Amino acid sequence: MTKRKSKNYRFYVIPAVLLAIAGGVFLLEKNNVINLYSNDIQETTAPQATVNDINYDPATTTDNEDINARKDNGTVDATPVIPTNDTSIQITFIANAQDVSGGQLEIRTLLNGVNDGSCALTLSKGPSEIKKSSTITKQNNYFICDAFIIPYTELTNGEWNIILRVTAGDGRTNEASTTTTIN
Fold first, then answer.
1. Which of 129, 148, 171, 180 is at a distance of 20 to 30 A from 100, taking alpha carbons?
2. How far apart, in whole angstroms, are the C-alpha atoms of residue 20 and residue 150?
3. 90-182 has which fold?
C-alpha cells in the first residue's frame, strides 16, 4: 500500500514543481530580469532635464512702445470706441414658438458676455412690423432677455422674421436673427 501512495505523490508533486518553475521563469521574463526571446535588451535612460528658456528680465523699451506712444499723446486712459455688432455679446434663441396653434408667441433668449442692459425685439412679415423691448436679467447662473410674449391677435399666419438687438449697459451691441412660422 505504500507503493501506491508514492505513485500518487509523484503524480501531484512533479506537475506542481514544473508549474512553479514555469511560473518563476514567466515572472523573471515579465520583469525583464531574464530575456529568453530576443538578444536585444532595452536599456532605460533617465529622462532629460527640462530647460527653462523663459526670459524673466524686465520689459525692454521696445516692448512698451505702444503704451509709451499713448502716454505721449495723452490717450493712455481714453475709452476706446466700442464697435456695433460686438461679438463679445453672444445671443442664443432658446425658445421661439407658439405653445398651441392660435396661442401666444413666446421668444426667450440666453445671453453670454453681458450682465446688464436692454433687449429690443423686431418681428416683421412683409409690411407688418411689431416692436417689443425688455431688460437683461439674471436667471439662476445665466443672463437672459426677459421673455417676449406676443399675443396671437397681433400676428397673422405665415413666416415671421425675428431680429433681437442686445445693448449692454456699457454701450456694446449685437444682434441675432431667426424666423418662426405662425399657424
1. 129
2. 83
3. Immunoglobulin-like (2.60.40)
